[in-house]
Amino acid sequence: MTLFQDIAIIDLLRQREAEFVVVWSCEQKIKELLGDVDFPFPMPVDLPSQQRRTARKKPPLKKPPSPPTPPEIAGPASPVVPDILSSLRKLDTSRENAYRLVFLRHGVKDSSFQTDYDLITALAGLHCPEFQLLSLETVSFTDLDDWQVIDTLWEDSQ
Description:
This protein has 158 residues and is of the alpha+beta class. It has four helices and four strands. The chain has helices at 3-33, 71-74, 81-87, 117-124; strands spanning 98-105, 108-114, 131-143, 146-155. The longest helix is centred in the first third of the chain and has 31 residues, at 3-33.
């Protein structure tokens, strides 16, 4: 594996663990609401890591992927993209340790904490009806219930 793949796998494993913590936290809060009564939680979905593996045949060789198309060539650019990219900066590690994105995903408002500058840059340039960035902040992050906004880098003016 390459260093890039190693880093990507570590980051994804961290994200996976964080999601397990979210599920655990939700289950604990449900138990607290019910006065520590056991709640019949449904069994978790069958994760790929729990499935038995079978030997796979090697797929035929594919041609190498073409390099990604820059946003300005990909299609009509959103007028706010240059504004987002111009306000984007790397984290000040003396006081910030994550970015907080607030966005609409399929019309539902959501947020996410990220540490990868390159991912933030890619999301800022993303043009699709399923995803719309609403704001980008830097935060001091301890856990999902304990974080503080340090700086608002960009906010949708609409």
